[in-house]
Amino acid sequence: MALLPLRGCSPPVCSPAGIPGGTLLCPRTAGSGIWSQEVDMSSIPVISTAKNINSRIREYVSRQFSGDEPIFLTKREDVLAYLKYELPELVIYNLSDGQINIRGVLDEVLKDPWILYGGIIGIYKGSLDPEFEAYLKQFNCISLIPEYDLDFSFPRALRIIRQNRNILFHRDLYNKLFDSINGAFVIDNDPFDIKTYANLLTNYLFNSDFINKDSRDRLQVSLMELLMNAIEHGNCRISYEEKSSWLKDHNDIFELIREKNRNPEIARRKVRFNYHITTDHSSFSICDEGEGFDWQSVICNSDSRVNLGKHGHGIRMSNYYMGGLEYNEAGNCVSFRIMHQKDEVNIVPGILRGQKERIFNDGEVVFTENEDSNYLYYIVSGTFDVTSKGKHLSTLTTADMFLGEMSFLINNRRSATVTSRGRSILLKISKVDFVNLIRRNPHYGLFLARLLAQRLSRLNEYIAKM
Length: 466
Known about the structure:
Layout (H helix, E strand, L loop, with lengths): L2 E3 L22 E2 L15 E3 L3 H14 L6 E3 L2 H11 L3 E5 L7 H10 L7 E6 L5 H7 L4 E6 L3 H14 L2 H4 L1 H7 L2 E8 L3 H17 L5 H23 L4 H10 L3 H8 L3 H4 L3 E8 L2 E7 L7 H5 L14 H9 L3 E3 L4 E7 L16 E5 L4 E3 L7 E14 L2 E6 L5 E2 L1 H5 L7 E14 H10 L2 H23 L1
Parallel strand pairs: 3-4, 3-5, 5-6, 6-7
Antiparallel strand pairs: 1-11, 2-8, 8-9, 9-10, 10-12, 11-12, 13-18, 14-18, 15-16, 15-17, 15-18
Helix pairs in contact: 1-5, 5-8, 8-9, 9-14
GO molecular function, one term: DNA-binding transcription factor activity
InterPro entries: cNMP-bd_dom (IPR000595), cNMP-bd_dom_sf (IPR018490), Env_Response_Regulators (IPR050397), HATPase_C_sf (IPR036890), HATPase_dom (IPR003594), RmlC-like_jellyroll (IPR014710)
Protein name: Cyclic nucleotide-binding domain-containing protein
């Protein structure tokens, strides 16, 4: 299938980009040969005191996650303790709970973004206050569901999470073991699913430090626009004129989509959303089953009077945000690529805020072998070479988080020399400061123990190969 580049509206040429064959409901990791079919979720915390909501949540969670029982938390101190010590993969909030200060809990979580490990499903009564909805964008929200729609939308959100849990939860495993992840979502003509799928991918890329917050927001908007176009204009064949006429008398385009789906032929159509994530870039393709459209007239329209408050400009906006879209000749399949940021972290643990920042240039030594280990370093950005007696031992990046933690903790002298490869930024932490930080935030001691266990496991693997 030939895809045509749109950057600068240059003349069409053939592109090597293509659409991966097949439609996978679970992501595949390159080189692993493993397909994720069975899901063994850890316990799912539910922050709610509403018995009616809780009983329905229990039923749907048990159905989707092999009989696992959710844990219901009703006190603020219990909620924060669970989040800090368990780092749950998924948290369900009753955002309208009158007996729990949900905003207070979320404010505490924001003070230490490190515990924003997994995703959030929010359930609310009535309508969300616009200010609160904007506030929730700071979290890894997968889906926000009104209570009146709980029985329809909540099981669907859980199903999507269950089928695609690798791209949401196992970012650390991916960063260390796999070169790429390929997969596809097969989406019905239902706009509800769009936001869930877009949130899954954008949160994964952000949490993996592949994109920063601004890039995440732009990617999320672009995916939403392109997926909506695939359903609305592609599969449902809603023209610009028909949509304009409908919106004069109705506020909700979803009603028109539901009307269109009364036609069995339209209801059977799918949108195929493929993704390919590597260490340095991510690529996406979105294909509908419609007849396509004249994409060149939309992208290359020289009219600069774009009013984003009106409809009809989503493709142009996405083209601008993503630096160029590529369409096939028919116009029913679009693809694009984004480059990842290199060796940068998006979130610094809350306990390390305010620590002294050190900048190292290429070739500059952080510490040398056999010197006193009085400081621990947290890697904010950069790449580091570890050598001993002139022999290269390993390379550390932001994925490794710390430098010099072992000798620092056991009062040994440095066992190796660490040198910055290119420009880098570290947070320097003294032993006294670190002990005081752990005393005030004991859950970080558990986290560091897990990190050291992972390092020892990798060291054992290295020795076994020698």
